[in-house]
């Protein structure tokens, strides 16, 4: 089992709780868990284990713990494998003990969060492992499920990746449609510099080497190289000579990511690790 990385600090419980409350409200509906209430005696107690049914990297146990606590504060949740752990199929992730009704009520929401977020962490870990030994870092994007961005970006960190901006207010990222609307790279950069505070960075997306050269001449902090071939990326790194941080984006898969990393770019962004990661199979066994 691989230990969690030191930068995987979880979001504060105050930020997690509203997300979990919404998921529980969706599941409980107007009448609550009528199946458990009608089939299980109110005094019945049970012990259960969260178990990984597939090998992968775990994320979301902090969310599962909050789920069980919100359903019944008296439930006892014992963590066995922390978020960020890489586990084998059959590994016990946590043990929960208490009201059988409460365990059954919280089960699906806890599993949904843990399975989905572990899938994100696992997909991230696969890319991170593929670029090991290079200087490239794997980063996520804003291609997240509405309402789950905070948790998905946490899962990326659990998988050994790094976070790109969390929202539109983090930093300036000028993309192709901005350039069309602004009338080109230079006027876009000039307008940003006229109104941007000194604490924010400027990133510009380019899809050609001539655009890159123009951006370098304007002193852009970070340049996103969109859908370039490895040969073009290597040329971009040579042209940059360290004048800007370079991020590669587009056509990032397990089959291509190593070649992209070997060009010398500092960052490789992937939307797929959040929007297309398959859930990891996690179960609750009584």
What does this structure look like?
The protein has helices spanning 13-28, 34-39, 61-71, 100-130, 149-158, 176-182, 185-195, 209-217, 230-240, 257-261, 272-275, and strands at 45-52, 56-57, 76-79, 86-87, 92-99, 137-139, 172-174, 202-206, 222-226, 245-249, 267-269, 282-285. By secondary structure, the protein is of the alpha/beta class. The chain has two domains: 13-126 and 278-285, Alpha-Beta Complex (Aldehyde Oxidoreductase, domain 3), CATH 3.90.1170; 130-275, Aldolase class I (TIM Barrel, Alpha-Beta Barrel). The strands form three sheets. Strands 6-11-10-9-8-7 form a six-stranded parallel β-sheet. A four-stranded antiparallel β-sheet has the order 3-5-1-12, with helices on one face. The protein has a two-stranded antiparallel ribbon with strand order 2-4. It is elongated, with a radius of gyration of 22 Å.
Characteristics:
disordered N terminus; elongated; alpha/beta; six-stranded parallel β-sheet; single chain; 286 residues
- How big a fraction of the residues is strand? 15-25%
Structural class: alpha/beta
Annotation, overall tally of beta strands: 12
Average of pLDDT: 95
Main beta sheet, described? 6 strands, parallel
CATH domain fold name of the largest domain: TIM Barrel
- The CATH architecture assignment of the largest domain turns out to be Alpha-Beta Barrel
Overall form: elongated
Number of domains: 2
């Amino acid at each position: 089992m691989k230990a969690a990385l030191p930068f995987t600090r979880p979001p504060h419980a105050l930020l997690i709780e509203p997300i979990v409350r919404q998921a529980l409200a969706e599941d409980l509906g107007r009448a609550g868990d009528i199946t458990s209430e009608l089939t299980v005696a109110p005094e019945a107690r049970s012990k259960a284990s969260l178990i990984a049914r597939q090998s992968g990297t775990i994320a979301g146990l902090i969310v599962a713990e909050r789920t069980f606590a919100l359903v019944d504060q008296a439930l006892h949740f014992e963590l066995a494998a922390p978020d960020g752990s890489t586990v084998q199929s059959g590994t016990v992730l946590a043990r929960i003990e208490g009201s059988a009704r409460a365990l059954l009520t919280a089960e699906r929401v806890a599993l949904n969060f843990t399975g989905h977020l572990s899938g994100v962490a696992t997909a991230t870990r696969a890319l991170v492992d593929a670029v090991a030994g290079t200087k490239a870092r794997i980063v996520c994007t804003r291609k997240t499920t509405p309402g789950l961005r905070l948790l998905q970006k946490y899962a990326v960190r659990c998988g050994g990746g790094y976070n790109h901006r969390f929202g539109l207010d983090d930093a300036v990222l000028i993309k192709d449609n901005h350039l069309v609307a602004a009338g080109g790279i230079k006027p876009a950069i000039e307008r940003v510099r006229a109104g941007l505070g000194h604490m924010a960075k400027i990133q510009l997306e380019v899809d050609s080497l001539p655009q890159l050269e123009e951006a370098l001449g304007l002193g852009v902090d970070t340049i996103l190289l969109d859908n370039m071939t490895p040969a073009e990326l290597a040329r971009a790194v040579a042209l940059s000579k360290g004048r800007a941080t370079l991020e590669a984006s587009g056509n990032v898969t397990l089959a291509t990511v190593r070649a992209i990393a070997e060009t010398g770019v500092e960052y490789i962004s992937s939307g797929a690790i959040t929007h297309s990661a398959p859930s990891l199979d996690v179960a609750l066994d009584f």
